[in-house]
Amino acid sequence: MRFRRLVGLLILIGGIFFVSSSDFQPMMKQAVSTVDQHLTQIIQNFKTPRLADKYETDTKTKESSQDSSSSGQVKATPLESNVQGRTLKRTYYYRFASGTPDRVKQVFEQAVKAYNKTGIVKLIAGSGSQKQNQIVFSTYNSATKTQANVIELGVGGPEIIQQTGWDAYTANHARAKLNIHYAQAVSLSVAMHELGHAMGLDHSAERSSVMYPVDQGVTNLSRADLAGLKKIYQ
């Protein structure tokens, strides 16, 4: 019995001596640091991504899908079927149909300025000849909805006039209209969209494009939109 007590006492004294030694504290600090690093890694592995991180990832994915991995070229906005494979002259003459409201003229004039700033096309007020590109701006009033049950804010598109022979020419006699049945149709974003159709751009699946089929309020031509125009006019 006394022997057991003596052994226990010796173990206790040895433990106290070990804890109080100069080597013990560095060892404990190293152990605590190692455990802390492991816990931090475990927490990071199970951390839920922030919305900002997800948005950034989605944006990078979208941008990479628009660019060619090999050449870095932008994937162009699709073109209307009747202008595909054609090269049109860059100059257009535009006019407004009789009775077009001033507020509609204003947003179409703003859209014209935006397209002119690209340097790809040149829109001039006036009436062109049969052989020249023309656009007529106008309005209509209808409660029409698309097949997807979306209200129709406007219509627009190219009409290719082509003559062969010794006096051959190809011209686009386009139209662009805003549906004044809906107040939101009289806006720059809708005017940009319908003018884009008139110039030969088709609908785009990219929300950043003015040619997205549902109005997103976009008033700046995207890189893909510009690439689409260049296919027709350069």
List keywords for this structure.
234 residues, six-stranded mixed sheet, Collagenase (Catalytic Domain), alpha/beta, 41% helix
Could you outline the blueprint of secondary structure elements for this entry?
Blueprint: H1 2-20, H2 24-45, H3 51-66, E1 91-96, H4 102-117, E2 122-125, E3 133-140, E4 154-157, E5 160-163, E6 169-179, H5 188-199, H6 223-233
Parallel strand pairs: 1-2, 1-3, 3-6
Antiparallel strand pairs: 4-6, 5-6
Helix pairs in contact: 4-5
Task: Provide a quick synopsis of the model.
The chain is α/β, with parallel strands linked by helices. It has helices at residues 2-20, 24-45, 51-66, 102-117, 188-199, 223-233, and strands at residues 91-96, 122-125, 133-140, 154-157, 160-163, 169-179. Strands 1, 2, 3, 4, 5 and 6 form a six-stranded mixed β-sheet that branches.
Helical fraction equals 40-55%
Poorly predicted sequence stretches spanning 5 or more consecutive residues: 42-71
What oligomeric state is this?
Answer: single chain
Mean pLDDT: 80
How many strand segments? 6
Write down the secondary-structure element order.
HHHEHEEEEEHH
- What would you say the CATH architecture of the domain at 91-233 is? 3-Layer(aba) Sandwich
According to CATH, what is the topology of the domain at 91-233? Answer: Collagenase (Catalytic Domain)
What structural category characterises the helix and strand content?
alpha/beta
Number of helices: 6
* Alpha-carbon distance between the two ends: 105 Å
Largest sheet: 6 strands, mixed
- The percent range for strand residues is 15-25%
